[in-house]
Amino acid sequence: MGSLSKDPREEVIQAWYMDDSNEDQRLPHHRNPKEFVSFEKLDELGVLSWRLDADNYETDPELKKIREARGYSYMDFCEVCPEKLPNYEEKIKNFYEEHLHTDEEIRYCVAGSGYFDVRDRDEAWIRIWVKKGAMIVLPAGIYHRFTLDSDNYIKAMRLFVGDPIWTPYNRPHDHLPARKEYVETFVQKGGAGQAVDAAA
To answer: What pLDDT, on the 0 to 100 scale, is given for residue 3?
Structure first.
């Protein structure tokens, strides 16, 4: 891929540093001026991403290839919206509590959109906006949270290696082996990722 070619992920995934406002969690929460985050910076934090064909997820050879390569044997769907999710208000509050998992969190947005927030090495929040066609993998041990955006709807494919375990460990859970491994692999590794100023 040449240096001038556009990354196809840009159309379905955007990331930026969040402000400190306590306004509605479903708002974008850009800093002023906006500070966008590159895919390289997300890679440094262990966050992987792809752009896939959400209209053909049943037969998409690219998704099949990823699942086989990464051992994602389990698959189901989760729809998050007031009409479809029982105890919606309580669940949304729980999703937005900062937490980690002892396994990867794999989400493929097949409809709608939403925000995954992750901590960078300096504990600043990075907001990752996923839209239809975006697939992201949050590594085991990363502190994160999820919320819908103002459209109030996402349908996501959930993938897992083996039998799914969705247990969230709310912060602090720094003693867990998955957290220690994450810190050793991605946080202590160092390296200064650069925020890109929005020049538009």
So the answer is: 55
